[in-house]
Amino acid sequence: MTESQAADVSSVEAVTTALTKHGYLPDEGLATAIFLAMTLRRPLLLEGEAGVGKTEVAKVLAAWTGGELIRLQCYEGIDAAQAVYDWDYARQLLHLRAAEASGEAEARTSDALEADLYQERFLVKRALLRAIEPRLQPPVLLIDEIDRADDEFEAYLLEVLSDWQVTIPELGVVRADTPPLVILTSNRTRDVHDALKRRCLYHWVEHPSFEREVAIVHLRLPEVSGALARQVAAAVEALRSLNLYKAPGVAETIDWAAALGRLGVTQLDEQSVATTLGTVLKYREDHERVEQHGFADIVKRALDRK
Ligand SMILES: Nc1ncnc2c1ncn2[C@@H]1O[C@H](COP(=O)(O)OP(=O)(O)OP(=O)(O)O)[C@@H](O)[C@H]1O
Ligand SMILES: [Mg+2]
User: Fold this and answer.
1) Is 51 touching ligand 1 by the criterion CB < 6 Å?
2) Which pLDDT value is given to residue 104?
3) Domain membership flag for residue 306
4) Is the minimum distance from the CB of 55 to ligand 1 under 6 angstroms?
5) For residue 2, pLDDT beyond 70
């Protein structure tokens, strides 16, 4: 039995339990979306602010199911040669030189020589091709930050995600036996097209609730005291309400708690907030905004939070 058959996807609760065991605490909406994506075998598009835990979902799913994590990081200008496959020109050239040197090149027709160059061993397999190659264990394909890619690439992706196949003119068609589990993420710097959305299930990932964020800090940083974890989560909650340019994500909450713990802080005060703010807020304007608002209020809200 493969590990993915062993992964218990019998219910939303089973998914929640498995993700929790692997260090990820989803809320019910996200756990339901993951459950449906896994059971219906549909790609899942996760949108949300930076640092809410979108990318981590794919990593945790790979760890849970035992499928290889194949990551395609999108960027402006990404194209099929970087996402699907390319030919290794340097090795092809070396092969030709070697054929020339050995005298083999003269003995063979140029067509035969050329055909030699398009063998699988000269193929550079990129993420999408690797994700649909037949294999024992379906991988987890993470298509990260799809909003950074161009429209043309999105259209291409749509084709692959519909047919689960790629045609390599020189070699033939590669088709997945079992489609990979696909997680797409977007920070919504632009809207993903409807056609692609139609292929996917969709979930907007929110910042965690206060209690969940405390639990995440506990899980990630067992060495940080319960009281400090609560204060940090409450202070982050307060910061998020300030309409900052870049509100802190979960990653920043974890970093902040770790930094305070390392400095031996046991209770937040104005001084410790002021000196460690750089672990939470990464824009000067946001620092100024918090300073104007007053550290005292952040500390008060952190300590008063029930
Ligand atoms: N629900 C959660 N349970 C456990 N850890 C979480 C959770 N949500 C976020 N994290 C942690 O927060 C950090 C940031 O998560 P991640 O990188 O997935 O965010 P993201 O949404 O992809 O951000 P970005 O948009 O900046 O890429 C990771 O260390 C992740 O482990
Ligand atoms: Mg991410």
Assistant:
1) yes
2) 76
3) no
4) yes
5) no
Q: For the chain, give percent helix, strand, coil, nearest 5.
A: 55, 15, 30
3-state secondary structure 150-169: CHHHHHHHHHHHHHCEEEEC
CA of 110 to the centre of ligand 2 (A): 48
**Token reading at 70:** 């194949």
Using a 6 Å cutoff on CB, does residue 74 contact ligand 1? no
Which of 44, 221, 250, 256 for mutating ligand 1's site (highest number of atoms within 8 Å of CB)? Answer: 250
Verify that 151 and 63 share a domain, yes or no: yes
Question: What tokens were used for 73?
Answer: 């990081």
Tell me the mean pLDDT in the region 149-156.
91
Whole-number Å distance between alpha carbons of 261 and 278: 15
Q: 181: part of which helix (H) or strand (E)?
A: strand 181-186
Which residue in this structure is represented by tokens 């394909």?
141
Instruction: Give the count of domains, the chain.
Output: 3
Same domain, 118 and 130: no
Residue 237 in this model has a pLDDT that exceeds 50: yes
Global confidence as pTM? 0.91
Residue 212 CA, closest ligand 1 atom number? 1
Cα–Cα distance measured from residue 186 to residue 273, given in angstroms and rounded to the nearest whole number: 31
Domain of residue 138, CATH code: 3.40.50.300
Q: Is 216 close to ligand 1, i.e. is its CB under 6 Å away?
A: yes
Q: Domain limits at 35? A: 3-78+126-205
Our answer on whether the CB atom of 20 is closer than 6 Å to any ligand 1 atom is no
Q: Which ligand is nearest to the CA of 144?
A: 2
Give 194-215 pLDDT, tens digit per residue: 999 999 999 999 999 999 999 9
